[in-house]
Amino acid sequence: MGRKFLVALGSAVLALSLAACSGEGAGSGGDTSGEKPGDLTIGVSMPTQTSERWIADGNAVKQKLEAKGYKVDLQYAGDDIPTQSQQVDQMITQGADVLVVAAIDGTALSGQLQAAADAKIPVIAYDRLIRGSKNVDFYVSFDNYKVGVAQATALLVGLGLQNKDGSQGTAKGPFNVELFAGSLDDNNTQYFFGGAMDTLKPFIDGGTLKVKSRQTTIEQVAILRWQQETAQKRMEDLLTSSYNDGARVDGVLSPYDGISRGIITALQNAGYGAAGKKIPVVTGQDAEIASIKLINDGVQGSTVFKDTRLLADQAVNAAEAFLQDKQPQANDTQTYNNGVKVVPSYLLPIATVYKDDIKATLIDSGYWTAEEVAAGQAKK
Ligand code: GAL
To answer: What is the pLDDT of residue 24?
Structure first.
C-alpha cells in the first residue's frame, strides 16, 4: 500500500474515532486517575533504530512502564517523517492515554499534537523538543547547551589548550579544526552548536584555532538526520578541498558519536592514525559502544555521556503524573521555548567521558560491561 494512501487512511480513521469518543472515554485521554495501570496505554514514538541509543531509550521506557503494569505501544519511524506522523496518528486512534515522542523533525507533528490535545492526551517530548505547537505538555532531556560547551571544552583539552580543571593548557597552537553540527530539523542541534561555538569563538577570533575550510555557520556544517555516511562524505570533501596543500587537521568538533565515526573513517582513509600521522582530536555524544571502544583504543578523543536510563525514568515519572491527573515535576521552566510557549522541562546532568573516565562513568555504573567495551558491541 502506498504511503500517501496510508496517511489518508490514518487521518480518516482518526477523524472518525475522534468524533466517536469526542475526547473522553474509549480508554483514550481525559481523566484517567481512577483507572488501573493495566487499562492504560502509553504510546512511545522513537525516531530510528539505526542508532543504538534510541533502541536503548525505547527499551528502557517500555520496560519501566510495563514494570508498573502499563501497556506500551512502542514504534520506530525509520527516520522517515510521514511514517512517524502516521504512527502517532495510529497511537491516538488506538486509544493511547499519554504520548512520549522523540521527533525526527521537531516541527512536523503539529497536526498530530492537535489531534492528541482534542482527545485530551498529554504529550511528553522526549529528548528532542517539538516546536511550533502549544500542545506539548512536558519535556524531558539534558542540558543541551551544556552538551555543546562540554564538546568544545573536550576539543580544547584534547588539543592541550586547556586542562580538565579549566586552567590554561601548555599548547600554543595554532591548530586546524573543522566543525560539524547535527540535523537542522532537530531542535537540539542549535543548542549543541551554540554552546560549542560560544566556547570556541574566542580561540577562533584570536587565531589559536583556524577553520581552514571557512565553513563556520550552522547551515554549512549541519549533517541531515545525523547520518554517519553524510558526515564521512563531508569530511572527505573537506580533506580534498582544504587540506591538499600538506596542512593537517588537528581537531574536529563532532556533535554525535555516529557522526564522529564517519569523520574518523574519512580521516583514516586519508592516512591519519598511521605512520606517524596523528589522528585528530574528535569529540562526540551519546557514549555509543562502538565509539567507547574507539575512545578506549585512543582513536576517538571523547564523548558526552547522557544516561538514557535516567531519561527513561523521567519520562515514566512524567507519564505517570499525567495519568494520575497531576502535573509532572519540572526543574526548568524558562529555557525551552518551542516558538509558541515555554515547555516545562526536566533536564538531567551530563558527563564528559575521556579514556580515563570509561571505567568509573560507564562500567562501574553498569551502562556498559568491560567485555562490551573491549568488543565495541552491545551484548543484548
Ligand atoms: C539528538 C540527541 C543526541 C543524539 C542525536 C542523534 O537529538 O540529543 O543525543 O542522539 O539526536 O541521534
So the answer is: 36
